[in-house]
Structures are given as C-alpha cells and as structure tokens.
C-alpha cells in the first residue's frame, strides 16, 4: 500500500538554521500560528504570515515540490470551506479562514521537515510530563501521535490505490466502489495495529 499524500512534509536531512533551531522554539511557532488563526481578522495579515512561513519552509531545503504536495492535499477541503464562507460571510472572511488554515499546515510542515520523528515524539513526551499529576501518560500520548503519523499516510495511500483501481474498471464515479474498499482496508489496518499493540502489552487498561 502506498504511503503518499501525507498532509505535512516528511523529515528532510539538512543543516539549515531551521534544522538547528531548538525543538521547543519550533513547537512554539506552530502553537502561535494555531492561536493566530483564531485572532487574525485581516486576510492581508494572514497572507503575509503565510508568505513568511513559506520562506521558512524553503530555507529547510525541503523544496517547492514538498511544499506544494503538503498544500495540495488540503486544497479540496479548503475549496469547500472557502466557497461556503464566501456565500455566508463574504470574500474577505473566506480568504482569511483559508489562509489561516494554510498557515497552520505550512507551520506544521516546517516542524516535521526539520525534526526526526523520534525527536518529535521525545519532545511530545517532555511537553506532556507536567500533566502527569493530572493522570496523563506522556509515553502513551507519544505512542498515539506515532500511530497517527503512521496511519494517515497508509489510509491516504489506500484511497489512492482504490481510486486507481476503480478508474481502471470505469467505476471512478461510483461512491461504493471508492468508499467501501477503503473502509474495509482501514478497519483491517486498525485491527492489525491494535493486535500488535496488545501483543506488546500496550494500549491495555492499568
């Protein structure tokens, strides 16, 4: 099964200034971009921030193709959201919402393109440790992130494979031919993942 079509860029080895930036600072940038998406009210400001994030992404050396792939995966959803918001609230608001989502996608791509997955998970564990007093388990939280990072590309690849197969049979317009195989494959993958975790004593209640 092909694992392409992930929403954010995969790690790219390099020695850029973004690669050398401390992980906590990159986490902070992503968090600020996420918070800003709720606070910015001017689409021009959103566009300027998006331009800055795109420049930062290019500084990682990941390349324009990776950036476009990360953005392209969310475009169908953003198109629907943008058109709906345009109809409901007007063009400026629609543009602001779409641009803010793109800012978050590109910011997350900067993080993942310059941080190995293991370092990213270790950072998640470190950030979650203060919440132990509230009953949180940082290791399980990191495990959840790891499973998610592995599952999304698999499901995206499953959909692409099914779509190609349906197109070869002339069934690309048949929703059942597209949705049902992906649903079955996803459920099977989830069961296999659950069995693998259970076999290692993970994911069970304390």
UniProtKB/TrEMBL annotation:
Q: Which residue spans traverse the membrane?
A: 23-41, 47-64, 71-88
Q: How does it sit in the membrane?
A: Multi-pass membrane protein
- Compartment list: Membrane
Keywords of the record, alphabetical order, are: Membrane, Transmembrane, Transmembrane helix
The answer to keyword Translocase applying to this record is no
Key word Transferase present in the record?
A: no
- Its principal location? membrane
Q: From the record, what ranges are coiled-coil?
A: none
Instruction: Quote the InterPro entries the UniProt record gives.
Output: ABC/ECF_trnsptr_transmembrane (IPR003339)
Q: What domain of life does the UniProt record list for this protein's source?
A: Bacteria
Protein name per the record: Biotin transport system permease protein
**What species is this protein from?**
Arthrobacter bambusae
């Amino acid at each position: 099964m092909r694992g392409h079509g992930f929403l954010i860029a995969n790690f790219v080895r390099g020695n850029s200034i973004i690669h050398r930036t401390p992980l906590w600072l990159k986490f902070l940038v992503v968090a600020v971009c996420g918070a800003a998406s709720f606070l910015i009210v001017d689409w021009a400001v959103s566009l300027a921030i998006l331009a800055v994030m795109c420049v930062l992404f290019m500084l990682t050396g990941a390349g324009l193709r990776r950036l476009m792939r990360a953005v392209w995966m969310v475009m169908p959803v953003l198109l629907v959201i943008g058109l709906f918001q345009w109809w409901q609230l007007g063009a400026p608001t629609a543009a602001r919402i779409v641009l803010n989502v793109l800012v978050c996608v590109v910011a997350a791509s900067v993080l993942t393109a310059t941080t190995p997955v293991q370092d990213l998970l270790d950072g998640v564990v470190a950030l979650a440790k203060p919440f132990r007093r509230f009953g949180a388990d940082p290791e399980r939280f990191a495990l959840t992130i790891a499973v998610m990072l592995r599952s999304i590309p698999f499901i995206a690849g499953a959909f692409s494979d099914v779509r190609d197969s349906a197109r070869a049979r002339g069934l690309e317009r048949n929703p059942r031919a597209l949705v049902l195989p992906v649903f079955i494959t996803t459920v099977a993958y989830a069961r296999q993942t659950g069995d693998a975790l259970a076999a290692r004593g993970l994911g069970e209640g304390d």
